[in-house]
């Protein structure tokens, strides 16, 4: 049976098509009474998109029950980053997870394709403060001295999983959650993420076009509102898997 379009509500004014409802439901990787997790594709804004298309936050109305609010996003991913993203289905769950996030009880693991090869050393920690820099309507993050007035502490662990001619596959564990942190930290050590021209990333690697930012949120570990720790994983999307295979990194 085809999914029915959501009704336009006075509170939101949002109306989802049957295709949009089917699309966002196809992204679900885990659901229970407290939480809903999705594998966000690259190109979909988590919130606040400028284009005349619905953001993930708006698409979550597809899961709202009559008279109830939609699931609430617990964290965000950059528009061009793919991977696991968590929502809370109830207000108590949202409060619990929000406090856990603030207490840094979430552990996030990413995969990234970088150029021109593996970092040296092949694993380590990048600990460089960041500051926000706005140019017109665009926001960037920059590495800055610790004593800069706008400096925010940022720390990223990395590990090389594989290396090929002109590229490497890294596992990344951010210990802080600054905007564009992984992208800027890797660029700061001369290993920008492929497909990230904003921070110096290559658009072609070993003769292979890079279709988008090669950064994927692969796993998330967090305290579950019902007790214990929960681990969620999102499979690498097809475009990234194809590039990994072409580079003999997959």
From TrEMBL:
CDD domains listed in its UniProt record: PseudoU_synth_RluA_like
GO MF term set: catalytic activity, acting on RNA; pseudouridine synthase activity; RNA binding
Residue stretches making up the Pseudouridine synthase RsuA/RluA-like domain: 35-188
InterPro entries attached to this UniProt entry: PsdUridine_synth_cat_dom_sf, PsdUridine_synth_RsuA/RluA, RluA_PseudoU_synthase
Superkingdom, taxonomy of origin: Bacteria
GO biological process: enzyme-directed rRNA pseudouridine synthesis
Family to which this protein belongs: Belongs to the pseudouridine synthase RluA family.
Protein name in the entry: RluA family pseudouridine synthase
Species whose genome carries this gene: Phenylobacterium hankyongense
